[in-house]
């Protein structure tokens, strides 16, 4: 337990090159070129780090970083932008062909500053792609019934294709009752037990997959990182990230372990992973020694740490000690600019799919 929680500060000052993997996505018909084969090729103004092919018994990772190794930074912000662009195109096509505009309703209860920021960002993102957003802000001391009344109104509103209740809710509310009330056809967060249940079952399809885990997998796909047959470790077992991330990796044919606060040897287990998804909310918990050389790291943590030199008085760091990870991993997501922007892109994507499904629009 102690070793799990122990972390030391590992400030993020390492200069790293930002690299948009998605540029390498093969266009139709072209074979996929694994990044490790692109050794030394100058691409889009960047050179890939020099990679050494090892004789690792597992086929992954083939590339271990040599000398002053520097992992490729998975640019979630650019990839999310590319996805928003694709969504914008689809939304205008739908509007032109059937006159439907996807709508997303967001319910915010209370005055947590971080929640207000997230909701503001979601609204901005909706505007940027042409999703119509409906926002309800209720005071902290609202009753559960009041929230349920708004959910029921949005459930019945044909212009609303997605409903999101910003979490966490005030402690006097029963989160389960509230999440259960969202119609599964509009559950763009994918938090309804029926959607999670289907996600957990082979041969069943959820209507929606939770946005953050979906964003993690989308990053791997868009970076041409194979998941099938790989050892994946998810750190954290929350309903909204860890658990669904593990289920998604399993659906992608990874061999999945979940490391959590009662795991006896988290470092030993994590250091065997080809892919690590960390979602615990402990700054710098995952140290270099937890990382197998060449592993791919998706860092979901967004942790404020004090920083007098920053204008806000704090800065955001992930769960993973970024500068150590950069020396050992083959690819790593930064915080901010990694998974966060993908979460919002996936929310827009789920809202678009919902509108398409409701109107039978392909
Ligand atoms: N029902 C519900 N659904 C959610 O999806 C949900 C939620 N409740 N409650 C809170 C968490 C958190 N979350 C984030 C979304 C985007 C960023 C994001 O875009 N972050 C940026 C900027 C961070 C900054 O600078 O403040 C980044 O990482 O680069 C972060 C966090 C969604 N959540």
TrEMBL record:
Keyword Transcription regulation: no
Domain Tetrahydrofolate dehydrogenase/cyclohydrolase NAD(P)-binding: 210-357
Xref: InterPro entries: Aminoacid_DH-like_N_sf, NAD(P)-bd_dom_sf, THF_DH/CycHdrlase, THF_DH/CycHdrlase_cat_dom, THF_DH/CycHdrlase_CS, THF_DH/CycHdrlase_NAD-bd_dom
Catalytic reaction(s) noted: (6R)-5,10-methylene-5,6,7,8-tetrahydrofolate + NADP(+) = (6R)-5,10-methenyltetrahydrofolate + NADPH; (6R)-5,10-methenyltetrahydrofolate + H2O = (6R)-10-formyltetrahydrofolate + H(+)
Single Gene Ontology BP annotation: photorespiration
Entry's Gene Ontology molecular function annotations: methenyltetrahydrofolate cyclohydrolase activity; methylenetetrahydrofolate dehydrogenase (NADP+) activity
This protein's pathway: One-carbon metabolism; tetrahydrofolate interconversion
PROSITE patterns the record matches: THF_DHG_CYH_2
Gene3D superfamilies referenced in this protein's UniProt entry, alphabetically: Leucine Dehydrogenase, chain A, domain 1 (3.40.50.10860), NAD(P)-binding Rossmann-like Domain (3.40.50.720)
Record's keyword terms, sorted: Hydrolase, Multifunctional enzyme, NADP, One-carbon metabolism, Oxidoreductase, Photorespiration
GO cellular component: cytosol
Domain Tetrahydrofolate dehydrogenase/cyclohydrolase catalytic: 74-189
Classification via Pfam families: THF_DHG_CYH, THF_DHG_CYH_C
Top-level lineage group: Eukaryota
Keyword Ribosomal protein assigned: no
Family to which the UniProt record says this protein belongs: Belongs to the tetrahydrofolate dehydrogenase/cyclohydrolase family.
Assembly and binders: Homodimer.
Function of the molecule: Catalyzes the oxidation of 5,10-methylenetetrahydrofolate to 5,10-methenyltetrahydrofolate and then the hydrolysis of 5,10-methenyltetrahydrofolate to 10-formyltetrahydrofolate.
Name this polypeptide is given: Methenyltetrahydrofolate cyclohydrolase
Organism: Vitis rotundifolia
């Amino acid at each position: 337990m102690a070793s799990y929680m122990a972390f030391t500060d590992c400030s993020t000052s390492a200069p790293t090159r930002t690299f948009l993997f998605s540029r390498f996505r093969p266009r139709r018909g072209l074979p996929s070129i694994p990044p490790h084969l692109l050794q030394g090729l100058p691409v889009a103004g960047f050179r890939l780090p020099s990679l050494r092919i090892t004789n690792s018994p597992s086929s992954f990772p083939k590339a271990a970083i040599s000398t002053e190794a520097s992992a490729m930074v998975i640019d979630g912000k650019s990839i999310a932008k590319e996805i928003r662009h694709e969504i914008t195109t689809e939304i205008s096509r739908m509007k032109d062909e059937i006159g439907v505009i996807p709508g997303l309703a967001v319910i915010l209860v209370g005055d947590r500053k971080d929640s207000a920021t997230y909701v503001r960002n979601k609204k901005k993102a909706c505007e940027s792609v042409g999703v119509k957003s409906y926002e309800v802000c209720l005071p902290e001391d609202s009753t559960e019934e009041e929230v349920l009344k708004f959910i029921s109104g949005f459930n019945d509103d044909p212009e609303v294709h997605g409903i999101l209740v910003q979490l966490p809710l005030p402690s006097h509310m029963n989160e389960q009752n509230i999440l259960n009330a969202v119609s599964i056809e509009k559950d763009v967060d994918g938090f309804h037990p029926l959607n999670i249940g289907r996600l957990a079952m082979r041969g069943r399809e959820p209507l929606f997959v939770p946005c953050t885990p979906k964003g993690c997998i989308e990053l791997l796909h868009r970076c041409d990182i194979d998941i099938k047959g790989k050892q994946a470790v998810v750190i954290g077992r929350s309903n909204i990230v860890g658990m669904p991330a593990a289920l998604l990796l399993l659906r992608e044919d990874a061999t999945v372990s979940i490391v959590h606060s009662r795991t006896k040897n988290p470092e030993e287990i994590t250091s065997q992973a080809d892919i690590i998804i960390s979602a615990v909310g402990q700054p710098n918990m995952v140290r270099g020694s937890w990382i197998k050389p060449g592993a791919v790291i998706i860092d979901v943590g967004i942790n404020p740490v004090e920083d007098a030199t920053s204008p806000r008085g704090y800065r955001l760091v992930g769960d993973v000690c970024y500068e150590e990870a950069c020396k050992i991993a083959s690819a790593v997501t930064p915080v901010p600019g990694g998974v966060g922007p993908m979460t919002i892109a996936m929310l827009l994507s789920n809202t678009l799919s919902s509108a398409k499904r409701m109107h039978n629009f392909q």
